Amino acid sequence: MDYLHDWANLLLRWGHLIVGVAWIGASFYFNWLENHLERQKASLGDGVAGELWAIHGGGFYHLQKYELAPPRLPEPLHWFKWEAYTTFLTGFALLWVVYYLNAGTMLLPPGSALAPWQGVVLGLGVVVGTWFVYDALCRSPLGRRPAWLALIGFALLIALTWALMQVFSGRAAYIHVGAAIGTCMVANVFRVIIPGQKALVSAMQTGAERDPAHGRHALLRSRHNNYLTLPVLFLMISSHYPMTYASEWGWLVLAGLMVFSVLVRHYFNIRHLAGRKVWVLPAAGLALVTLMATMAPESPPSREAAAREAAAREAAAREAPEIAFGEVSAIVEERCAGCHAAVPSFGGFAAAPAGVALDTGEQIRRHLKDIQRVAVTTRYMPLGNVTGMTDAERATIGAYIANQPPAPGS
Ligand code: HEC
Question: pTM higher than 0.85 for the full model?
Answer without folding.
Answer: no
